[in-house]
Design goal:
The chain is mainly beta. The chain folds into two domains: about 200 residues, no CATH class; about 190 residues, no CATH class. The protein is built from two helices and 32 strands. Strands 4, 5, 6, 7, 8, 9, 10, 11 and 12 form a nine-stranded antiparallel sheet that branches. Strands 20, 21, 22, 23, 24, 25, 26, 27 and 28 form a nine-stranded antiparallel sheet that branches. The longest helix has 17 residues. The protein is globular and about 80 Å long.
């Protein structure tokens, strides 16, 4: 359970930043060009926050946080060596409260080594009406890679910690479990890892993991979980990411301003594979589709990285028949093997725009006007590559509404994307 907790929180943060990777390549390139030839290669990762609370209800869970988060996504190199955030760890509450918190990620890269440290500092903690209290909480994990191997370490500590009125050692052994009389339990210094390899290492730590198991204990529902001071750090030799989806619509206005992404398949920065199928989808005003399949895969070795995303969709009918297609399929691939390379392709069967049949071998980035509405880009392709990374994006149909009070009823600024695939591979 401990490892699942760390993995889920990290994956969630990465997924948010990586789902729409389009456009990140230019920022990455600026960093890579300057550093790739003179610095130790590798991809640092980090994530941390002060407090996260999950409270069960009759219809699901009510969550608070993560508060004061800090994150370093492996899809884009850091622009600076230090990322920090500070603020109140938790809003005022007589039962669950704390003082200020500071979250920091620090990266150090030389010609022979790379390290990433994630730290979480919380001052004047008071939880559960004083049942748990601490002057200082200092959660620190560090991952380091050199030519001789990669390792991670936990150097977290407490100052003035008391649990149920009893003092606790400033450096409790990993995964120390203590009973909270009449409430539940707390795990101190909860640790996942380290997991070390020749060029890959990771570690995650939760300094306090409080579980409420008593009924109506101090006003908190049984099953409430309170995570205090989460930190994670990792290094891997390369990063990959692939995402494919069938439909995404934004700027629609009304009570549903955005739809999708629909049928999303994606990978984490460490690779893997996934496939998602769809038996048809209908969106009022936007249109409908038939069967669709999205797939994504990525792999990392000690000397290379590859990623591929694909989407295939049938029986497309958009904007009341204004745009139709029997089939659209997109593929985006990116790889790094001492240098970045990329490729993209799209397949179209009987694509019609305004009743006109488009060629099956349509040139990339073909623009067709939609009179009184806006325009559509068919077989949209873009990306970048250099010595350290490559990104590629392919979009089958990209509709942009630019005219107000048009025949579709959509607002100016609305955008509809059908059949998208994005991949990236990098060695910073």
């Amino acid at each position: 359970m401990k490892r699942l907790t760390v993995t889920f929180v990290l994956s969630f943060a990465l997924a948010l930043s990586a789902l729409f990777l389009c456009g990140a390549g230019s920022a990455a390139s600026a960093f890579n060009t300057a550093s790739a030839t003179s610095s130790y290669p590798g991809v640092p990762n980090g994530y941390g926050y002060a407090v996260y609370i999950i409270t069960p209800t009759g219809s699901g869970n009510v969550n608070y946080g993560p508060s004061v988060p800090v994150a370093l996504s492996c899809t884009t190199p850091p622009a600076t060596n230090t990322i920090t955030n500070s603020g109140l760890a938790l809003s005022g509450n007589s039962l669950v409260s704390s003082g200020s918190a500071t979250s920091t990620i620090t990266i150090n890269r030389t010609a022979t080594s790379l390290s990433v440290q994630t730290s979480e500092d919380i001052h004047n903690l008071s939880m559960l009406g004083g049942v748990i209290a601490a002057n200082e909480i200092h959660a620190v994990v560090t991952s380091t890679a050199t030519t001789t191997g990669a390792t991670s370490a936990n150097s977290s500590s407490f100052s003035g910690l008391t649990v149920a009125g009893l003092p606790v050692n400033s450096s409790p052994t990993p995964n120390t479990s203590l009973t909270l009389p009449g409430l539940g339990s707390v795990i101190l210094n909860e640790q996942s890892g380290p997991t070390n390899g020749a060029k890959t290492t990771t570690i995650g730590v939760i300094l306090m993991d409080i579980r409420i198991t008593a009924l109506h204990a101090v006003g908190l529902a049984s099953g409430t979980r309170i995570v205090i001071a989460f930190v994670q750090s990792a290094i891997q030799p390369s990063a990959v990411h692939a995402t494919a989806y069938t439909l995404y619509a934004s700027g629609l206005g009304g009570s549903t301003p955005a739809i999708g992404p629909v049928a999303v398949a994606g990978t984490s920065c460490q690779g893997g594979s996934s496939t998602v199928g769809l038996n048809g989808y209908t969106v009022p005003v936007v249109g409908n589709t038939g069967n669709a399949t999205s797939s994504a895969s990525g792999a990392i070795t000690s000397s290379s990285a590859t990623a591929t995303a694909q989407n295939s969709i049938s029986n497309v009918n958009l904007l009341g028949g204004l745009i139709t297609a029997d089939k659209i399929a997109t593929t985006a691939s990116a790889s790094w093997n001492g240098g970045g390379s990329r490729s993209g392709s799209a397949t179209f069967v009987n694509v019609k725009v305004n009743g006109s049949l488009l060629p099956s071998n349509l040139a990339p980035n073909t623009r067709e006007n939609l009179p009184g509405i806006g325009y559509v880009i068919v077989n949209e392709q873009y990306g970048s590559s250099n010595a350290s990374e490559a990104t590629e994006t392919v979009i089958g149909i990209d509709i942009n509404v630019t005219v107000s009070n048009n025949s579709t009823g959509l607002l100016a600024g609305a955008r509809i994307i059908v059949s998208a695939a994005t991949s990236s591979a990098a060695n910073y």
